[in-house]
Amino acid sequence: MKVTIFGSGYVGLVSGACLADVGNEVVCVDIDQAKVDRLKRGEIPIYEPGLEQLVRTNQAAGRLSFTTDVVEGVAHGLFQFIAVGTPPDEDGSADLQYVLAVASSIGEQMNDYKVIVDKSTVPVGTADKVRARIAEVLQRRGESEIEFDVVSNPEFLKEGAAIDDFMKPDRIIVGTDNPRTSELLRALYAPFNRNHDRVIAMDIRSAELTKYAANAMLATKISFMNELANIAELVGADIEQVRIGIGSDPRIGYSFIYPGIGYGGSCFPKDVQALERSARELGYQARILESVEQVNYRQKAVLFDKIKRHFNGDLAGKVIALWGLAFKPNTDDMREAPSRVLMEALWQAGARVQAYDPEAMDEVRRIYPSRADLQLSNSPEEALAGADALAVVTEWKLFRSPNFDAIAAALSAPVIFDGRNIYDPKFMKNRGFTYYAIGRGSV
Ligand SMILES: NC(=O)c1ccc[n+]([C@@H]2O[C@H](COP(=O)([O-])OP(=O)(O)OC[C@H]3O[C@@H](n4cnc5c(N)ncnc54)[C@H](O)[C@@H]3O)[C@@H](O)[C@H]2O)c1
After folding, report:
1. Which is nearest to 216 in space by CA: 123, 131, 283, 129?
2. CATH 1.10.1040.10 applies to domain 212-298
3. For the segment 390-401, what is each residue's pLDDT rounded down to a tens digit?
4. Active site residue 28
5. In this structure, what are the phi and psi dihedrals at residue 139, rounded to the nearest 5 degrees?
6. Catalytic residue among 267, 272, 360, 428
7. Is 2-202 in CATH node 3.40.50.720?
């Protein structure tokens, strides 16, 4: 089948490569000329395991191509996917300008029936706006007889495991008010659906809300555990034991109940905010969502507070080694990453940072170009050299079992602030470390 995808970011690029890999002819359209040029050369602008190989193979086979040419893109696909960003507006609600710009482009260029598939995460009612925008443009062109359908098909892939998630989805949500489009989408997704039927068809508004509900639930679990971790610390309990204790209840489960230093990334923060703002616009105060956001905001400061307390409030001239910059492992994405909040607080307090991340070094260079108080290191060991303490910010596998003797020898004193609870407090104590974690007290 012929597929066009607008937006070649995390979602558009992964969707395009996976759809091409099962035999579809996919054209990816992006407005970012530099990005498209790189993609044409087989360079992948983001780090996502397995993506480079998948893109190159399908590009070489002629099933996947990249362009900035909207005319070519609209002419190509029966399916016109919208996978552009929906960043927060000034007030936190989702900014739909990119989605609606794509809708206008499709309306301007389409000459036959198209299925417009909205994959971006968008507030309830956006499909109606997309439909209205296309209809308006067609009418202006005097082409209002050209038919089209709009489908909501939110994406649930996780950065770091995006290809697996797309190839073997838990569910494929198809929001449509027309059985014709539901069948077309079923056919397109059939290759990812062989094991058992994962398509869940529903009305468009419910599909749009399902995506926000999923992200809000996951963010709620994280904030809940972070709240509990803070309480555990005060009452002298170990949140890691509590986590295992509650996770054993199948109604709760073990996933997504890790305490830490707050959620980041391009989705949870903006989606919780956007859902809360949507509710507010309709006169409803979403108290749980407000709290989830507030707890997360506070949690991002927890590691800095511990560092500051350890150094008796005086961080001027101190050097902190930072392990991990990406908002989670297996990605280079630093959008809303807790590392940014921590580094900025450290700089504000007069400290210097020596940072290492296995994949996000280009990203940190782009975000904080040439800062005297940020030294980017080529290895975890290099980041430690001469630092006054180590802060573990992202739980990359590489950091899970380091050479503790080498850490102790490289630091001016053996002090670790573990924002992800990846080490064992007793073990650290026996090794002679002053060890701070989340919800486990200090040793
Ligand atoms: N990143 C994730 O893990 C994830 C997961 C599920 C859903 N989502 C949602 O998917 C959407 C896209 O997210 P992303 O992380 O891929 O974004 P991204 O910022 O990585 O990529 C968006 C791309 O769209 C391009 N673009 C903007 N306007 C365009 C236009 N008019 N025509 C063509 N291209 C245009 C940009 O240049 C950019 O390359 C968002 O709504 C997001 O919430 C993201």
Report:
1. 123
2. yes
3. 999 999 999 999
4. no
5. -65, -45
6. 267
7. yes
